[in-house]
Structure formats: structure tokens, C-alpha cells
């Protein structure tokens, strides 16, 4: 069980600095700053928000970061397997290489953040042999997991306590959603109402989040240990 994070300080800036030091000092601040930068926070300058990035972080946030990290490891492994399989070519292979690199970057930064909050999970051992049969099957599973990833981040958004972690998580969410849309379009998926993992056209005005249980029931198919 993870240790609960220190209570959020109130009052003067020196208290906030002590709070950040209790999370790992300058390294913790740098980790959150790196996450914001990696997720496209161009408006965050080197010093912008430095004393507030970790405010409000609690033990539950570590669980969520590690949950997201596990999904990023899974997606990165799938892209690696897809590239190495020799099944893909053209734009599909280009997407697999580019998107895989993005997922590895997400995983790297989330590992740093989780480590500063209390401890990062190990990368799971994955097995995609069942879907490395033909290009259509492989691309369908890749698109499914990207859709799952986007819905997973959205599903945890209400539970995140740290505003900075929430902002960064949503920045990753939009990248996952764009990956999913590009892949859905590539494989010719049309609109299907009430099918959150299918179709590049939204089913309505609001995206459908997925719970941890729903996500892990799908992602768990490819996790050996």
C-alpha cells in the first residue's frame, strides 16, 4: 500500500516549498514540469507554476498515474510488436512508428512522476501473438486500444486531486483520442452509435469515459504478468 502524500499546505510560499521538498524537492517539481512540457504545455514557461504543480497530490493520484503508466507500457509494446511483425506497410507502418514513440515518451514521463510521488509500477509482460496474424486484425486491435486509452484517461479525470496532474493527463488524453481517430479513419471504420471503441465520428456531444474495470477487461487480454 502506498503511503499517503503529505497534507497540502496552506499559507505562505515557504510552506509550499517545504511541501514540494517532501515530495522529492526540485526533482519532483521538474518531473511535473516535464510532464506538462511533454504533453504540449507550450504556455508553461520554465518557471511558470513551479510552486503549484504538485499541490493537492494525494495517494490516489499515484494510483491513477500508475494505472495510466501501465496502459502506456501496453500501447508502446503493441506498437513495437506491430513494427517488428512485418505485417504493416505504408501509412500504417508510419503511424505505428510515430505513435509508438509517443507512447514511449508518455511512459517515460509518467514513470518519473510516479517515482517522485511514491513509486512507479514495473512494465507488465505483454503478449500480442494472438493478434499478430494479419494487418486487418492487428490494426483493429491497435485502434481499439487507442480508443480505450482515451476513454481511460477521461474516466479517471473526476478522481484526480492535483490540478496539474489533471491538466497533464487531459493533454495526454487528447493525443490518445487523435491517435484513435487517425487509426479509425485508416481502417475505414464508419460511425456506430453506442459503440465507444468504433468509428471516427463521436456518438454525441460528449465522449464516453470508461472505468478501470472496463478498461482492464480489455487491456488485460494482452497482459501476461
Question: What would you say this structure looks like, in words?
Answer:
This protein is an all-alpha fold and 225 residues long. The protein has a single domain (57-222), classed as Ferritin. Helices cover 59% and strands 0% of the residues. The protein has helices spanning 13-22, 26-38, 59-85, 90-117, 135-156, 163-186, 212-219. α3 (59-85) runs antiparallel to α4 (90-117). The radius of gyration is 18 Å and the shape is globular. The model is unreliable at 1-54 (pLDDT under 50).
Q: Outline of this structure?
A:
With 225 residues, the chain is mainly alpha-helical.
Order of helices and strands: HHHHHHH
Low-confidence stretches: 1-54
Q: Which whole number gives the mean pLDDT?
A: 77
> Proportion of β residues?
under 5%
| CA-based gyration radius | 18 Å
Helix content: 55-70%
Which oligomeric state applies?
A: single chain
Count the DSSP helices: 7
CATH architectural name: Up-down Bundle
Give a quick account of the main beta sheet: strands, pairing sense, barrel closure.
none
Could you tell me how far the N terminus lies from the C terminus, measured between alpha carbons in angstroms?
A: 19 Å
CATH-defined superfamily: Ferritin, core subunit, four-helix bundle
Number of strands: 0
Q: Quickly give the structural class.
A: mainly alpha
**CATH class wording:** Mainly Alpha
CATH topology: Ferritin
Structural domains: how many:
1
Amino acid at each position: 500500500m502506498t503511503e499517503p502524500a503529505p497534507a497540502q499546505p496552506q499559507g505562505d510560499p515557504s510552506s509550499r516549498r517545504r511541501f514540494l521538498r517532501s515530495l522529492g524537492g526540485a526533482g519532483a517539481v521538474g518531473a511535473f514540469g516535464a510532464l506538462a512540457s511533454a504533453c504540449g504545455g507550450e504556455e508553461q514557461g520554465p518557471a511558470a507554476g513551479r510552486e503549484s504543480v504538485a499541490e493537492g497530490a494525494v495517494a490516489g493520484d499515484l494510483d491513477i498515474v500508475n494505472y495510466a503508466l501501465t496502459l502506456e507500457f501496453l500501447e508502446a509494446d503493441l506498437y513495437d510488436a506491430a513494427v517488428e511483425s512485418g505485417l504493416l506497410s505504408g501509412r500504417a507502418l508510419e503511424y505505428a512508428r510515430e505513435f509508438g514513440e509517443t507512447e514511449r515518451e508518455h511512459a517515460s514521463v509518467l514513470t518519473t512522476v510516479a517515482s517522485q510521488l511514491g513509486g512507479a509500477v514495473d512494465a507488465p509482460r505483454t503478449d500480442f501473438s494472438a493478434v499478430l496474424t494479419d494487418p486487418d486484425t492487428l490494426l483493429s486491435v491497435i485502434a481499439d486500444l487507442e480508443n480505450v486509452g482515451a476513454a481511460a484517461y477521461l474516466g479517471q479525470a473526476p478522481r484526480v486531486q492535483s490540478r496539474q496532474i489533471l491538466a497533464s493527463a487531459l493533454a495526454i488524453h487528447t493525443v490518445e483520442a487523435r491517435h484513435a481517430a487517425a487509426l479509425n479513419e485508416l481502417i475505414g471504420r464508419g460511425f456506430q452509435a453506442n459503440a465507444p471503441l468504433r468509428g471516427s465520428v463521436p456518438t454525441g456531444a460528449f465522449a464516453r469515459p470508461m472505468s478501470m474495470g472496463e478498461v482492464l477487461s480489455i487491456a488485460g487480454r494482452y497482459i501476461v504478468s
